Hints:
Largest sheet: 5 strands, antiparallel
Distance between the termini: 62 Å
Shape: elongated
Structural class: alpha+beta
Helix content: 40-55%
Number of strands: 5
Strand content: 15-25%
Number of helices: 6
Radius of gyration: 22 Å
Order of helices and strands: HEEEEHEHHHH
Amino acid sequence: MPSVPPASGKKSLRGRSASLILIAVVMLASALFVIKGLTAAGLTGTPGTFTVADCSPHRSSSSGHSRSASHEYDCDGSYRSDDGKSVDAEASLSSIDTDHRTGTRLAVQGHRDSTVLSVLSGSTYTLAGRGEITKCFVIAFLILLFVPLLLLDLLTGFGETGGTLRQWRQTWRATAGTRTRTVVLTTAGVILFGVVVVSPVLGIVLAP
């Protein structure tokens, strides 16, 4: 069986551009959840109260013809801003973690004027509070875990040799003792620190 050729370490301009674009996409996706976390902290949006009328299991489409229930819930109800200037009798919250009873009052942030937040939340309201803040920042950091792999590809060019698991292992072994491995491991370590430490701390510090 022929051996797998190692990555040359020289990545074409096209390959480098593709890697940089992918890193930018990952950073953007992470930034969206950071924005949602700041919204949950009350730093953006309009604070108010969501009164639950009914909750049902969230339905997600795994294909065009099948739908499966998740452990999240969609709730319908009404919203009233804290200043009393905004009232929405047909408000909704999407993909929340708890099945709330009818009449439950939840602190939320309204963001009708933000298309980005509305698309990200699946509704025009975001739950406020420490749990939601922590959750958003954890997701933001978890998304960034793609960055170390993309950096390895950018620095070694292994993706241009086929990018198979075997080639990845061979390339990774070849980086032992090099600056490339230091950069990749340091980046991964910082991101994991963000997941385990920074996110819970932000949840406490930023909680309204």
